[in-house]
Amino acid sequence: MRTSDEGPGYLLIAGLLVSALLAAVSHGQSTYRLRAESLARGMTRELRLSEERFKLAADGANDGIWDRDLVTGTVWRSERMKHLLGFSEDTDTESVEFFLSRVHPDDVPLLDAALKKHMSDRLPYSIEYRFRKGDGSWAWFRSRAQGVWNAEGQAIRLVGSITDISEQRAADQRLQHYRDFLATVLKFIPHP
User: Fold this and answer.
1) Among 28, 40, 75, 177, which is 20 to 30 Å from 13 by CA?
2) What are the residues facing 138 on neighbouring strands?
């Protein structure tokens, strides 16, 4: 049998145990919170570094970057891409229709075929086409892209870059002109 003096002792011990348990839980929660905050800071720092690396790489490559959401139909274009295409930053170039309306009519079927092949083969594509820039002039561009597919196998995004290859194409044309000229001249030189 218990005496009446033992009751408050058990209550005191039980109260101390509950207090110790609550202190341990509180300490665990604050430790968990501190680790979570530290992890979040680290992830934020890594994300900023990753964004900075991407921006430096994109700027250094002198390419324009684009990202087309195939579900919503929205398109994001980098500032560099707008500059390459000859449009100011405030020009709305975000629609696919706007972009395709400026591709040379002879090159639209080639662009469509490259996209269809990419969607079926799922291999990166690279295509060259003419584009009417913001000032009305035509320029040659090379576009490279890669699709992103969801778990069900549906294409959900298409991400890529463009490079202005107008100078390269002009140099290739000049070189071909000189080759043709040389071939013509060589026809008139007697061969032993």
Assistant:
1) 28
2) 132
CB 80 within 8 A of CB 63: yes
Closest CA to 99 of 114, 122, 82, 117: 82
How distant, in Å, are the alpha carbons of 40, 55, 56, 97, 138 from that of 92? 35, 21, 24, 11, 19
| Amino acid identity for residue 133 in this structure | K
Nearest CA among 176, 172, 99, 96 for reference residue 133: 99
> Is it the case that residue 3 has pLDDT exceeding 60?
no
Q: What share of the chain is helix, strand, coil (3-state, %, to 5)?
A: 55, 20, 25
> 3-class DSSP state for residue 48?
helix
Confidence (pLDDT) at 4? 55
Q: Which pLDDT tens digit goes with each residue over 40-96? A: 888 888 878 777 776 766 666 678 999 999 999 888 888 888 889 988 877 777 778
CA distance 192 to 186: 13
Tokens standing for residue 50: 């990753």
pLDDT tens sequence across 121-138: 999 999 999 999 999 999
What tokens appear for 85 in the block? Answer: 């295409």
